[in-house]
Amino acid sequence: MKAYGMANTNRLFTILCGAFVLALIVPLQGQAEFPERTITITVGMEAGGPTDIATRAMAPGAQAALGKSIVVDNKGGGGGTVALGVVTTAKPDGYTLVACQNVSIVDTPLMQKVPFKPLASITPICAFAASDNSALLVKSDAPWKTYKEFIDYVKANPGKIKYSSAGIGSGMHVAMEVMAHRDSLKWVHVPYKGTAPARTALLGGHVDACSSGVDWPPFVQSGQLRVLAVHGAQRMRMFPDAPTLKELGYAFVSETVHSVVGPAGLPPDVVKKLDAALKKGAEAPEFKAAVEKLYLSPVWMGSQEYDKHLKDKWVRTEKLFKETGIIKEAATQPQ
Is the pTM above the cut of 0.85? Predict the structure, then answer.
């Protein structure tokens, strides 16, 4: 009886061990490899702007690398923070991403309260292009031929000039705030949900000036608009007479970059796949042609490099904003 009982006990132990091993193996076998369905990238600006067009040009190559569809849609508003608010509440599985600008993550939350922690609520995936030469524009029939003439008019007519931008906290808005605080300028900011509608407002005569995103040169070349100053580190070869804000004495050089981020907590293997796939998209001829047409500069920062960039930019921008009087304290805490 003892031998029989011992045999049964051994057999039961073997069965239980086998069941335990199967319990570990079966879930692993059933776990699908990312991605297994469509990925959505929401652009934080209205359709037709640089971030939107560049993202759509990058998507086909990334889609081919991943083997699954990528859908691009738009949710403009709040200088890109409306879309960021959506992604920060999404499930961290890699299927909900946002294409936005670094200024949407740093500058805008510094200037106004947003419902998320800018650095803690996201997972940086990549940065894929830079907007070096945004600019201050007026209509070609405006009375101001130069930047000095325009600023002299603003000083003589406080509160009369209205200007448009791609939204509160956008790089174009920040440029105007730096100018206003140094020279005690009083003008009216009219924010829009992207570069394209902001420039359309100028063309339609709804505002007097536009602090525009980088895709403005064709409008100047066609004679519709006039460029008074550019925001880049150096003058543009196409428009050598337009001074930079830096040489005019302002502590501002545009460093806006376009990027893709996901919600906080994205698994490292998912981030790695998305990073690699989006880089493939950025290497495609179609993307390079789109970037050139948009007057963007191609750049690439992977997840870790872009994460470091955002953290460094937060420190530098907060210091700049306090020194120039744009803010007294950060409106939103980063962590």
Answer: no
